[in-house]
Amino acid sequence: MVRPWLSSYAPGVSADVEVPEEWLGAALVRGAREHPRRVALDFMGGRTTYGELAEQVARAAGALVRLGVGPGDRVAIALPNCAAHVVAFYAVLRVGAVVVEHNPTYTASELEHQLVDSGAVVAICWERTALSVLEVQDRTSVRTVVAVDISRDLPLLKRVALSLPVGRARALRESMRAEVPSGVARWHALVRAARPVAASHPVPVGEDLALLQYTGGTTGTPKGAMLSHRNLVANAVQGAEWTGAQRRAAEGGSPDVVYGVLPFFHAFGLTLCLSYTLRIGATLVMFPKFDVDSVLAAQRRVPGTFLPAVPPMLERLAMAAGERGADLSSFRYAICGAMPLPASTAAAWEDVTGGLAIEGYGMTETSPVSVGNPLSEARRPGSLGLPFPSTWIRVVDQDDPHREVATGERGELLVSGPQVFSGYWEREEESAEAFVEADGRTWVRTGDVVVVDEDGFVVVVDRIKEMIITGGFKVFPSQVEDWLRKMPGVEDVAVVGVPGGDLGEKVVAALVMAADAHPVDLEAVRTWCEKHLARYALPRQLVIVKDLPRSQIGKVLRRVVRDRVIGSE
Fold first, then answer.
1. What pTM does this model have?
2. What residue spans define the domains of the chain?
3. What is the DSSP string of 282-325?
4. How far apart are CA 153 and CA 56, in angstroms?
5. Alpha helix (H) ranges present in 325-403?
6. pLDDT tens readout for residues 187-239
7. Which residue, 41, 92, 152, 372, is the most exposed by fewest CB within 10 angstroms?
8. CA atoms within 13 A of residue 414's CA, in its CB half-sphere
9. Core vs surface per residue 235-274: b (16+ CB within 10 A) or e
């Protein structure tokens, strides 16, 4: 097959990469050996060197072995960004177990579904999340819940300051901590008391399952995408080749400083922060949540060079830098995903930093990055970019995925490469539907309609999937609709996404109310949903309609609803 996109690659980027047959944590082991005193992690000023991180991972792995965790066992992690998250992630992998990442703000019912589905035997959770897991534990396979006090990762002076009887300290303490029953195991105590895992303990191999990352795929029903060590290593290696970080280091350049503002439980944040960063020997500056003031304060203390982000983050930081005179010139590049990067946002970021802002594309099933704009003058705002090294793309007829369409024609995007997953956890039928065999390769169906030009640049035209992307998070209309249908007085409902400013899209609920129903407002709808849905999935706009448009077979036409909502604004 011809790869026209190679001519548009940035200088020095290879067409293909060699994926080493190793477990994901091998990069950390090398880093501890080659530069043990280099700072690997920075959490609000609390620093961990590569040598210290490797030692903590070895101890945490020993603690997991004492808890009975072995090869193939699933271990749930539900933590905000913090040092404990990194340690737990690599410790689980070191003992040959499988990480199952969860959003720590999920409700008990959302966590229950995923815990039951994965069969996780241990759950390592933020204290607040531990309470939710304990609520449903008896309906899952979880034997042990381990609570994590993330304030333990703070530097000593900040930990002491949390106990001060002042409003600011009290608010910070309450945002980090929660009261957990006395019998629940404590993460930091377990790790401190454990012996490092024995060097003779088997190390996983490349094809071993490393991660279950839950995604809605094309149906909206959460299912675990199975990603191997090789998949994750491949995407980290591809990212390193794309950015040229290791080439710069080989030429004597200083190590990168990566800002971890994206949540690690999200596929985008997991790869670019947890795996890519350690592979290139960078320092990861972590933020438990995105906050402009915190980022600017960290920038004064540890200037960043690389910011993986979603577009609203770049927009807010660029605006704040302009208003406050903050210096962001250390950032060489920012890579955005999960939602389109407006040209105006890219221009604003490049203006205040002097670096580049580019858009990339991927999905959980591709670990996640498969396409990106080149880090060069060849980048094209509004385009997703070019296939990554060792990545192939194919555009096919939406109704016949075996028929390739001509260059420049609309069609569904298929992706093939070493970062492509092996299928969905215990869902053979849906796994089979996700793949197409053609030209001697296995291709994963993305569900996105694109146009690829003669230079190989990919532009998204439409979504086959009806998911809503708000603030970089995926919301599946059917899940929100299921809860709203149970609300008293609601006869019918359609949930759609409409343009929502810096959110990308906002969630809108169109309700058909019963004739004798009491009036409802947006606040009532959000209150009804908040016990069962993540905050980003709550409707931000409410529309009361007489009826919903349906197809001849009775299916609600969400696209028509969306058009009507937009037309009425």
1. 0.87
2. 1-22+206-433+440-465, 30-204, 469-568
3. -EEEE-SS--HHHHHHHHHHS--SEEEE-HHHHHHHHHHHHHHT
4. 12
5. 343-353
6. 999 999 999 999 899 999 999 999 999 986 545 578 999 999 999 999 999 99
7. 152
8. 23
9. bbbbbbbbbbbbebbeeeeebbbbbbbbbbbbbbbbbbbb
